[in-house]
Design brief:
The strands form 2 sheets. Strands 6-5-4-8-7 form a 5-stranded mixed β-sheet. The chain has a 3-stranded parallel β-sheet with strand order 1-3-2, with no helix packed on it. It contains 3 helices and 8 strands. It is an alpha/beta fold.
Length: 154
């Protein structure tokens, strides 16, 4: 079975491709910690902050148990793909001041027309590791497009 874990933003609605959706808004949000605000979950200080709370460890333990329980059951039912969605959106602004908000998703869930951007696309790759306020450049057929990362939300 192929397992895909994706992030999404609740303000854009639930992803239709998700088989399981988890709301983690109960977890401590590093966005509200001044020194972490402009970092992402890919940065060690953010990871250390989130995992410094007991509820994070308990949630991960319970989630692992549930997934371990469910995977064989889904497989027995003939399901070959399982998509788990965990509530992140990114807002960028181009040089002309146009804002765009998108979800970063796995390549199988990519749908640029609905602002679901693959982490493997040039845009997705440019966003990986970016922080709020960072400038990113994306090579496109029309040339290089520059964006400023305005907001990253869980």
């Amino acid at each position: 079975m192929r397992l895909t874990v994706m992030s999404f933003g609740f303000k854009h609605g639930l992803p239709i491709e998700a088989d399981l959706v988890f709301d983690v808004r109960f977890m401590p949000n590093p966005f509200y910690v001044a020194e972490l605000k402009h970092q992402t979950g890919l940065d060690r200080p953010v990871q250390d902050f989130v995992f410094s709370f007991d509820q994070t460890h308990e949630f991960m333990s319970q989630l692992e148990k549930m997934i371990s329980f469910l995977l064989p059951l889904y497989s027995e039912e003939g399901k070959s793909v399982l998509v788990i969605a965990i509530g992140c959106t990114v807002t960028v602004e181009d040089a002309r001041g146009n804002e765009m908000t998108c979800r970063i998703v796995g390549s199988q869930e990519a749908d640029p027309m609905h602002r679901a951007i693959s982490e493997e696309s040039p845009f997705g790759k440019a966003l990986m590791g970016a922080k709020e306020g960072d400038e990113i450049s994306v090579e496109a057929p029309v040339g290089i497009i520059h964006y400023r990362v305005e907001k990253i939300e869980r």
